[in-house]
Amino acid sequence: MNCGFSDLVFRHGAELTCVERWPGVALSTRWVACIPARDEAARIAAAIRSLDEEFGAVLHILLLVNDTFDDTLAVVQSIAGELTCALTAVCVEWRGEPSSAPKARTLAFDLADLAAPNASWIFSTDADSVVLPGLRRAYEDAFGRGFDMVCGPIDFIEAEVAAVDPLHPQRDAAIGEYRRLGREIAALWFPDSDNPWPHHGGIGGANFAVTRSAYRIAGPFPPVPFAEDWALRRRFEAFGLRIRHDEDPRVATSCRLDSRTEGGLSAELRRNRLEADPLVDEALETPARLHRRLRLRRLVEGEPNRRRVAAVLVGRGLPRERADELAALPARKMAWFRVEAELPCLRRTPMRFSEMCRHLPALRRLLARTAAARPDSVPEHAG
User: Fold this and answer.
1) Are residues 105 and 249 both part of a single domain?
2) pLDDT digits (tens, 9 = 90+) for 187-219
3) Furthest-apart CA atoms within the chain: distance in Å
């Protein structure tokens, strides 16, 4: 078994230092929870205990301890004997480039196949998060309705909230409104019966789950520097798999500011509290760029005349041969996935908070116009 772990870890660009298992593969396993951990000795016990309490014997935890210098493994060893669930701890050190959340989460998901080959569902969470009661039932209810990926909301650990300086109230409200407006506009253009508006619309590595069979179709995570959760969600969408944004499976995560990864929640919290004019989430676009993205998506996914699709893609910057190839794809959602990844004009560029605020009135107007008209009748340069 360790030989399989070692080979897989090596292919991912790391070296295996140890594998410890308690009590081995459980015949009752239906779930595997993947947790990447780096120097998480202070928080890992709470994360594991909350999983054990919620899932019990149907769970196998795959803990990836990567590039770690504290006592994370020792803490796990000290509590492993009290657990009902199975647990596998895999310790690795990355070769060359240091650890990152996307690399670690991708490796953890792949190791789950070796640690818990009989699990039906894969749950993604973080070492600084605790699952809340009812999460397992909510996920199983959603999978029972045929969903392939389910994304739950992420709260903050209440005991930590008071210790963190709050955002400026106006800044917090502006960012929240801008995100909500963008998602509502997208929902008007592309209504989704599985996710009627309003819904939380997000995905975070601390709280989403997929069926193993769907991950084998759409996985692995794309090789991105951050936001691997969103990148995987886009792949699920491209393969036509069913995605549910569900309010019921909940976790609480740390609101600490000592970020270990680029682009994570902790980094965003730190920027918003310490910088006068921070970068905001790259998913928040100017109204003109959002409108362009939505129009191009409607064209690629819905236009019957595929020659017109190819011509527009060439005009937007794709080489003719590639534009013809993508326009001819029978799977329209996959065609859009490729177009969005390859067109230079659709590359996301983070805005500063001040710039976002300047665009907020225009985004409100774009929502009003979109709500009052069919999406395909909205003016080309709205916003």
Assistant:
1) yes
2) 999 999 999 999 999 999 999 999 999 999 999
3) 64
